[in-house]
Design brief:
Order of helices and strands: HHEEEEHEEHEHHHHHHEEEEH
Strand content: 25-35%
CATH class of one domain: Alpha Beta
CATH architecture of one domain: 2-Layer Sandwich
Radius of gyration: 20 Å
Helix content: 25-40%
CATH superfamily of one domain: Bira Bifunctional Protein, Domain 2
Distance between the termini: 41 Å
Mean pLDDT: 92
Largest sheet: 8 strands, mixed
Structural class: alpha+beta
Length: about 280
């Protein structure tokens, strides 16, 4: 083995030590305290999974084979595995949280703190818990971005277009469709903006849910993004992201797994640690 590979850290891997390790421990400890107090039980799921293609795009998976040569992958997302383990092995619906990494192709290691309400639609609770965590950490300048995955999906069905237009934020291609209400949706920033648009019935119901969620939020900075589409395959309903300076610190939404209604969120620990490290270095 060469001297380089004897000590080099692969691109995309994580190393925390000293001050950064202390921040990581603080963030995870604070999140655990908040989630336990809110009635969530901790769960740690296997690193290996047979079901990751249900969660993320196949191109992100690090694939392996089990002892029987069946295909599996390193955990690229925790949500579906948490729900299926709770329902099929623990035989319990309820609230669960996890603090663990996920892995994306080719060598990305990503730490997350997540929570899932299985059999419960508690999206407002999840948004409140993530906001509470960031407030306690002194990260108070984030923007709460609200969306509804059903809106871009319904538009694709109605107009016969590919979801990639929304997933990849292809604004020029969306404008080129020359649909007046769709062009107006691109300019929406608030619930009031969205309410003023006359939408097709197939889209109006989901838009109303998004408007109601926005107006119920007490967060100081809220932005409505009706055309945002998450790359996570299971999200189908209301969705939120907490963003600071173009960095996503947390996201969550409504989803279904095996016909069970659920809601949940994830905090992107590495991004949070970087924000806190930069703030404390000033």
């Amino acid at each position: 083995m060469s001297d380089v590979f004897a000590h080099e850290i692969p691109s995309g891997s994580r190393l925390y030590f000293g001050a950064s390790a202390a921040i990581k421990r603080r963030v995870e400890g604070m999140a655990s305290d908040i989630l336990l107090k809110a009635g969530f039980s901790e769960i740690v799921t296997p690193y290996f999974s047979y079901h990751q293609a249900l969660s993320v795009e196949p191109r992100l998976l690090l694939r392996l084979s089990d002892i029987s040569n069946a295909e599996l992958s390193l955990r690229a997302d925790s949500t579906v595995d948490v729900v299926r383990i709770a329902m099929r092995r623990l035989k319990e619906q309820g609230r669960y949280y996890y603090i663990q990494p996920v892995f994306h192709y080719p060598s990305y290691e990503l730490y997350q703190i997540g929570a899932e309400s299985i059999g419960l639609n508690e999206l407002s609770l999840h948004a409140s818990l993530s906001i509470e965590l960031f407030s306690n950490l002194g990260l108070n300048s984030a923007t709460l971005q609200l969306s509804h995955m059903g809106i871009p999906l319904a538009i694709c069905d109605l107009l016969g277009i590919d979801i990639a237009l929304f997933r990849d934020s292809r604004v020029e291609d969306i404008l080129a469709l020359n649909v007046s209400w769709l062009s107006e949706l691109l300019r929406v920033k608030s619930a009031d903006d969205l309410e003023r648009i006359k939408l097709p019935d197939e889209i109006a119901k989901n838009a109303k849910s998004l408007i109601d969620l926005s107006r119920a939020s007490k967060f100081k900075s809220v932005r409505v993004e009706p055309l945002y589409y998450s790359c996570m395959r299971y999200y189908e309903g209301l969705f939120f992201r907490l963003i600071e300076a173009n960095t996503t610190l947390a996201s969550g939404g409504e989803y279904m797994v095996d016909e069970v209604e659920c809601s949940g969120f994830a905090v992107y620990t590495d991004a949070v640690i970087e924000k806190i490290s930069t703030k404390e270095a000033k």
